[in-house]
Amino acid sequence: MSHKSDGKWSNRDSDLDELEDSYYDDLKKGNVKLKISESRYRCPYCPGREDDYTWRELRDHGSRRGCWKSSTIREKAKHLALQRFIDRYLSMKRDHESTHQTKPKVPSADDHHSASASLKRSSSSISSIGDAIPLPELKVPKTEHPDHKVTPLAQPKLPKEDSDQLFVYPWIGIVANIKTEFQEGRCVAASGKRLKDQLAEQGFGPQRVQPVWTYRGHSGFALVEFKKDWDGFKCAMDFEKSFEVKSLGKKDFFSYKLRGEELYGWVARHDDYQENSKIGVLLNKMGDVKTVSDLEKEDQNKTSKLLLNLRGTLDTREQQLEDIKTKFERTNIYMKEAMQQTDDLMKKYYEEIRKTQQRARDYSEKVYLDHQKAVSDLEAQRIFLLQREEQIMQDRALYESERRKLEQEKKWNESATLEQKKADENMLQLDEDHKKEKEKLHKKIIELEKQLDSKHALELEIEQLQGSLDVMKHMKDDDAKREETMKQIEEELKDKKEDLDNMDALYQSLIVQERKSNDELQDGRKELVKVFSAAGCKTQLGVKMMGQLNKGPFRCVVKRKYLNAGADDVKKKVDALWGEWKGYLGDPQWHPFKMIQVPGGHKEIINEEDEKLKNLKNELGDEIWEAVITALTEMNEYNASGRYPVGELWNMRENRKASLKEGVVPIVNQWRKLKGKKPVG
Questions:
Q1: Is residue 145 a contact partner of residue 25, using CB atoms and an 8 Å limit?
Q2: pLDDT, tens digit (0-9, with 9 covering 90-100), for 274-322
């Protein structure tokens, strides 16, 4: 696009401005209704939509619709006028009605309709050349009325006298009459952060709060720094007004002698800057003094330079676009000719390719037929060789299998012969030892019984002699004769006691020998348990683990309780429940037993009032309860201290503890059977 279109854009912008001014006058006169309730509004230029907005949302709606490329010029003019009216009148009215706790919204650049039009023209030009250059969002000032001066973007409207005042820039506010306390020889006060938070809550947006300190400590003053832009200036002015409406401004501060505890505040100006005090020194370090008009002109100069640069860039880009279009047209003609030549060459190429492929297909077909014949011959020969190989491998495998069987049988026979020989020797020795021990034990029992009878008779004689001696002591016969008789009885009693002591010593030695023999028998019983455990329960005798919890009742109860569960789920639940109670049985801290009085002493029985056992019976029934009681009883009898199952030689057919003879007889009979001798009865 060239400069020829400048006239067209100028006419279009002029029409847009005239329409916008016309609709803006209608809104000011009240000819168009916006408000539908106390806080809700509706766009009068979108009759098809029933949406209602707050005044801020309505302003954003007007700004968006005023920038749409698809909108007509009248729609844009209406919505730009709506945005302008809200910024000028509605927002000012809402700000006046609101309290100082709410921060007023800073007017945006869209308040200036001519700046929006210029921005749209620039955006349209850039879009027309394919977004050749990226541009920032422009904020262009506009004079709403010939009597008004050009104001910077987002700058609050000020009276002329305020515009010519010298403010400290960057904008700085002064807070006075801060409450201080005298501590340790100097004045102290609350931190600047607390004051900053209070001002931020009121919507003033302070950047930093710097307390003013002197050699005496806190001076009671603080400097509040605001942003350097027009938003910061508006916040600073709102900050000053919030104090002035409460009669807490600068004039009030210097006119009152009794200021109380209220804070005073104002915006730093030229007189504060020139003040010969700590505040003046800090203000000189922090900034400079400028008027709003000066800052306004600086912004205008920056904006003008930016617009000039943008227009120059646009012109350059448009010229480049024209050059690119010319080159594109030339290149397009050249490409069409080249494409035509390429199509002709491709036709010839594809024809040659087709002929070459046909010849290759004919040759491939001939080669394929010859190859298939050769493959058939080789396949027949391969099958024959594979069959021969398979037959040879089968014969070899059969031979190897037979050879391994013979070698294994030979090893088994040798091993069995050695084991049999050892078993024969062990059984003979065990049989002889058992007979000798049995005879010795029988003799010891008979001897013990005789000794016990002798001991009882001797004790009886000692008691008789002691009774006679006691009688003689109380008789009143001749003293000489009585004393002689008593001496004879005492000597005889002494001899009897010596015999009794000797008999006790002999009895104790016999008891020790009997215990030793009993231990040896118990060792033999343990060896039998090991033998039967290794052999398995193939006869009526076997090994039963005393104190082991039976898993069968758990499986039955879980299956009845979970009828619809799968086999894996049932198994998991059974294992979990069985494992839990197996852990309880092995816990030495759990002792569900109690002692009762029985004839001849005390007896330990299951305490059925135990809490775990009661809960088990109530929740899972009698089957599992009886299995747990049985395991507890067996474990308490066989291994109460270790609390783990132990093996016991058991008569499986009669369900009782097997005797030592019952365990030895099958082994001896097996040995005799191998030797060809008659079994023992």
A1: no
A2: 888 888 889 998 888 888 888 888 888 888 888 888 888 888 888 889 8
Give the mean pLDDT of the chain: 76
CA distances from 386 to 381, 382, 401 (A): 9, 6, 22
Strand-pair partners of 174: 223, 266
Burial of 36 (0-12, 13-18, 19+ CB in 10 A): exposed
Q: Where do runs of H (alpha helix) occur along 263-291? A: 270-274, 278-286
Segment 53-57 shows an average pLDDT of 82
Instruction: Output phi, psi for 125, to 5 deg.
Output: -65, -45
Tokens representing 231 are 């938003």
Its pTM stands at 0.29
| For residue 121, pLDDT beyond 70 | no
For the stretch 428-437, pLDDT in tens is: 676 676 667 6
The strands making up 646-651's β-sheet, listed across from edge to edge, are 541-546, 646-651, 656-657
3-state secondary structure of 490: helix
User: CB–CB of 573/562 below 8 Å?
Assistant: yes
Residue 592's H or E segment, with its range, is none
Tens digits of residue pLDDT in 549-602: 888 888 888 888 887 778 888 888 888 888 888 888 888 888 888 888 777 667
Strand-pair partners of 598: 601
- The answer for residues whose C-beta is within 8 angstroms of residue 493's C-beta and 6 or more apart is 462, 465, 466, 469
CA distance 585 to 591: 9
Residue-level pLDDT at 134: 33
**Which residue, chain included where needed, has tokens 């949406």?**
51
Give the strand pairing for 264-267 and 288-291. unpaired
| 217 Ramachandran zone, left/alpha/beta (phi>0; psi -120 to 50) | left
Q: Which of 670, 665, 649, 675 is nearest to 431 (CA)?
A: 665
What does the alpha-carbon distance between residue 537 and residue 535 come to, in Å, rounded to a whole number? Answer: 7
Give dist(CA 589, CA 643) in Å, integer. Answer: 10
Hey, what domains does the chain have and what are their CATH numbers? 3-128 (no CATH), 160-286 (3.30.70.2890), 525-675 (no CATH)
Is a pLDDT exceeding 90 seen at residue 224?
A: yes
Task: Indicate the burial class of 529 (C-beta count within 10 angstroms; 0-12, 13-18, 19 or more).
Answer: buried
Q: Which amino acid is at 466?
A: Q
- Contacts for 73 with CB less than 8 Å, ≥ 6 apart: 12, 15, 16, 19
Strands (DSSP E) contained in 257-310 are 264-267, 288-291
Contact 223, 212 (CB under 8 A): yes
Dist. CA 594–CA 243, nearest whole Å = 88
Three-state SS for 341?
A: helix
Closest CA to 132 of 324, 303, 264, 284: 324
Between 139 and 548, residue with greater pLDDT: 548
- What does the pLDDT read at residue 153? 38
